[in-house]
Amino acid sequence: MDTTTNPHLRSFIEVNADSHFPIQNLPYGCFRPKSGDFTRVGVRIGDWVVDLSVLEKEGFFEKTGLGDHRVFHQPTLNSFMANGRVIWREVREILSNLLRHDNPKLRDNNDLRSEVIIPVNDVELQLPVEIGDYTDFYSSREHATNVGIMFRGKENALMPNWLHLPVAYHGRASSVVLSGTDIRRPWGQIKNDDAQFPEYTPCRLLDFELEMGFFIGPGNPLGTPIPVSKATEHIFGMVLVNDWSARDIQKWEYQPLGPFLGKNFATSVSPWVVTLEALSPFKCTGPVQEPRPLPYLNITPNQTYDIQLEIFLQGQNMSDRHRLSHSNFRYLYWNIQQQLAHHTVNGCNLRTGDLLASGTISGAEAEAFGSMLELAWKGTKPLRFPNGEERRFLHDGDSVTMTGWCQGPGYRVGFGEVSGKILPASKLL
Amino acid sequence: MDTTTNPHLRSFIEVNADSHFPIQNLPYGCFRPKSGDFTRVGVRIGDWVVDLSVLEKEGFFEKTGLGDHRVFHQPTLNSFMANGRVIWREVREILSNLLRHDNPKLRDNNDLRSEVIIPVNDVELQLPVEIGDYTDFYSSREHATNVGIMFRGKENALMPNWLHLPVAYHGRASSVVLSGTDIRRPWGQIKNDDAQFPEYTPCRLLDFELEMGFFIGPGNPLGTPIPVSKATEHIFGMVLVNDWSARDIQKWEYQPLGPFLGKNFATSVSPWVVTLEALSPFKCTGPVQEPRPLPYLNITPNQTYDIQLEIFLQGQNMSDRHRLSHSNFRYLYWNIQQQLAHHTVNGCNLRTGDLLASGTISGAEAEAFGSMLELAWKGTKPLRFPNGEERRFLHDGDSVTMTGWCQGPGYRVGFGEVSGKILPASKLL
């Protein structure tokens, strides 16, 4: 029994019931205090950040497998993530204990407490992980079907391979940015259906994609696949992902080698990495998989997580943000163990810090679609907003925010937000 | 006038006329002396490696823009590559001068010379660059046409976008390995045309792809494209690339998002990075581009390099290697400036160390095809070898070696080799 997820656990730090960050969560991130000079690792609780570099210096983790190895006085989580689940659990238990309402050790040590517990408004968050390779899956049956219907018709909506393997492609690691980073509308080569030649123009069909991603802890050597039954040993935790997409650039370029410039101008991730430990009370079963996957992909039951997801949009002339969608991570057909096993079945090596994202997470109903392409059905059903504006795709000045959380009895374990605002395209090159 | 490429230049180090590494070349690599304890940067000349970490320590580069900044006491070229062309040229001139037959400074300093000039057989070469992102283009018109004919028929061989933009996709950086690394035959999901369901099996259609790649020196900020006219300022140098391919895995998985497990089990690169300075005497014009590319891709003339390329195969029961192909880098339709400009036109950021590869380099004649898929025409025209063996695709135990060089008057500026041997698939998972 993992005591760190006990619903009755309380901290001496006050946390609202609708906060994403109660003591049951304790997600990891990287930050620089506005008054400080280096980036270090922290854990979020309520509206506070716990500075682990100080706790480490003070010897709080010396009895774990980390010993006196410094992993929190680091600008990314990679060193810590490389250590594996045994040590992740040891550290989590120490933190969970230290933050309990009935443990005086930190609570009543005013000097230490003021050094270690920092208001989140007093820190600058950073990208939490140094990402080596970024892979994007395409694991929502509803999304793949919607896109298939729009571009190939109902008869051939799902490709023949789709129900047999978790389709994926390599994305761009260099342009993964932290939530809050503005997104510049990209230029690109676009060809209208009725035009003879392509043109060079700013993207007109700019879109978001609601996704989640997970980070690799310990990797695998080249040539040595990770069996599906051991996949979670290699998964540290999860974040929200917005895979910004330029639909018109993508449409013209993607045959036959897949998306490239239509995707690699930016991918946003949320700052707090929620561990599989924190998610474990919210395990649930995913969709029935029929035909039954090949043995290397087969894991029974199809275990996933019940994570509610929402998308909000606020145009620059709107007084408030408006909800566009309410989806759930559990809708995904392929689970994260299967994604990881498939990725390595050919011997491909994963490294600590690699990001594997889910692909757009759409549900069966239009209210649960995960992209503007689907929500406005290729522009044919524009979304209407209270101030009279319409959207087929994103306008300059639009802010898109995605959020996700697991609902427990009286508390939430959440991911915070991933957000980004569209800036107008730059002047002609 | 760049004196470092003068054909009459000679070194006090003896170099055969058919060596790839005369004083006009001076390519960079990373190595650990077999007697040494750390990896450092060196330059190759003839059968010797010049240890730049020692020259740096001795102050030989202090008068360059590097000052006392240490870039050669490093396990990769990244620190040096980040400095840009002005400094690359300063260092090259110092090295070129120092190694001249008529300069006594190093030649007659026996102590320093024995410390700095190391036989290449006494070192262990390492992957020269820490690669952030790896992009693979598809820039040979002949290759794209051949593949198109085989899979879609003559009428639709080239996709409509192909003549308008350099098609590319993101590859896997983690599995880029140094020449000489054995290649394990991958397992994967494969579906035969006449089968109802896919099976899980070792790859049966294992292939190579003859490519070249270039490494990024200074990168660009996210959101700021690099104009085609400034592209070479960001390119440090080039290597040979073998993009190993599992054709049967690729065929089943690649729709609609492109190649993934069919490619990412291994990509081999040659150890010595040949600079654009060393290649400059071998500039030539590439194919005529019609229709004329859009302005952001337009550079006149279509400038490329005359680099002869060969592929050899030796099976484990063959007494010698046999040449399969003789191609040339100049056959590529899209040049490296266009590839780089296209990659960044949407604001995508490149970082120091990124690898951009060409795609398979095929010529017009069957003798110049760059993959087994094309050479044996999808298995319909097996290659025959003197010992009676045939090949449609690669067998276990086959060694594939690719080589490339520019032919000058009485000397060659070359890339050495990229080689790899196929190991049998591992036992069932």
Structural write-up:
The structure is a homodimer of 429-residue chains. The longest helix of chain A has 14 residues, at 85-98. The first copy, chain A, has 429 residues and is α+β, with helices and mostly antiparallel strands. In chain A, the strands form seven sheets. In chain A, strands 6, 7, 8, 13, 14, 16, 17 and 22 form an eight-stranded mixed sheet that branches. The first copy, chain A, has ten helices and 26 strands. The first copy, chain A, is globular, with a radius of gyration of 22 Å. In chain A, a hairpin with an 8-residue loop joins β10 (187-190) and β11. Chain A has helices spanning 52-57, 78-81, 85-98, 104-107, 110-116, 141-152, 247-253, 276-279, 336-344, 372-375, and strands spanning 28-33, 40-45, 48-51, 117-119, 123-126, 134-137, 168-170, 176-178, 183-184, 187-190, 199-202, 206-207, 210-216, 235-242, 245-246, 267-269, 274-275, 283-285, 303-305, 308-314, 322-328, 355-357, 383-384, 390-391, 399-408, 411-423. At the A-B interface, β7, β10 and α7 of A face β7, β10 and α7 of B.
